[in-house]
Write a structure and sequence with these properties.
This protein is α/β, with parallel strands linked by helices. Helix content is about 40%, strand content about 20%. A 4-stranded mixed β-sheet has the order 6-7-8-9. A 3-stranded mixed β-sheet has the order 3-4-5. Helix 15 links the parallel strand 10 and strand 11.
């Protein structure tokens, strides 16, 4: 049995539940208005599930703020994980089964974002400082936060990736082995995307290394599953209107072959550089051709934020 994983932020909290940030972070300049990425790709409560998947696939994002049309007032947020839950991985799949009787076309075209979004998103205001932004991301265990003005109008969005780039240094003095996750959850190449979706939701992960005959083959992520539907590849795979048929697609069809690795003795700063240069959000940690861990952007971000001065 695979052990449950703790939320990634917990390891970086003091015993009193507050983040153990270094003095360097407290000295770092920048507020949310400066750090936020713009323009922001948004959606609305009335957008269809297919439209949402199409937009997330087109813009290659894993979260979209939900706004009031023509006002840009924040109403919620929807993530790739929410879509994975709806598309077979979790409790939201009950909507597909009960309301749409498993009909893929009905589930994608007649259901709306309001059914799967989080109506109480974690957000920051434009004046929040870096320390407060990091504290919110750590304690709330979120990797994406919308940035709003005091009246709730959306200004931008901040992701783990943005902060890693802002804080990254060439050398941190902290090894990858110190911050990586060791209980890596993998999936066999013979598995279906339904099984991959269920594992992501059950264990609270967004990515699964794919193994074949005991060797690493590639990776499947929540964004890959969203892209399978949003790019319409799913319609080329199925012959009926049953979503169950779509969910039988093999993970090798949806995931990507190949992966990026790093040595456990490498510096965390090197991990940040590789992620940036390769355009990936995680690295598989390999020692002597054996998978020993995984390091994500969140691990890198918190390591940079808590490294000794």
């Amino acid at each position: 049995m695979i052990p449950s994983r703790r939320p990634e932020g917990i390891r970086w909290l003091r015993s009193d539940g507050t983040p153990n940030f270094s003095d360097r972070i407290h000295r770092s300049e920048g507020d949310a208005k400066i750090l936020a990425k713009r323009p922001v790709y948004t959606t609305t409560k009335t957008a269809t599930i297919l439209g949402l998947a199409e937009d997330m696939s087109r813009y290659s994002v894993r979260a979209m703020p939900v706004v009031v049309p023509n006002q840009d007032k924040l109403e919620g947020i929807v993530t790739a994980t929410d879509l994975v839950s709806y598309l077979g991985g979790g409790e939201l799949f009950n909507i597909v089964v009960n309301r749409h009787k498993g009909n893929i076309y009905s589930a994608l075209l007649k259901e709306h974002v309001a059914s799967i979004m989080n109506p109480n998103p974690v957000y920051v205001t434009v004046n929040e400082k870096l320390t407060k932004i990091l504290e919110i991301m750590v304690t709330k265990n979120v990797g994406v936060v919308p940035v709003v003005f005091e009246d709730g109008t959306l200004w931008g969005i901040i992701t783990e990736h943005d902060l890693v780039e802002h804080l990254a240094e060439k050398t941190t003095g902290r090894k990858v082995s110190e911050v990586m996750t060791t209980n890596v959850i993998t999936i066999d190449a013979s598995a279906t995307i339904k099984e991959a979706a269920e594992m992501m939701i059950k264990y609270g992960v967004r990515r699964l290394p794919i193994t074949e005959d005991g060797a690493l083959w590639g990776m499947i992520t929540a964004k890959d599953i969203v892209r399978f539907f949003g790019s319409h590849d799913v319609f080329r795979f199925i012959e009926t209107d049953s979503i169950d048929e779509a969910l039988k697609a093999p993970v090798k069809l949806v995931g990507l072959s190949g992966y990026v690795t790093i040595d456990p003795d490498a510096d965390v700063g090197d991990a940040a550089t590789i992620m940036k240069n390769k355009g990936v959000s995680s690295l598989l940690v390999v020692k002597d051709d054996e998978l020993v861990g995984i390091i994500t952007e969140r691990d890198v971000l918190y390591a940079l934020a808590t490294m000794p001065d």
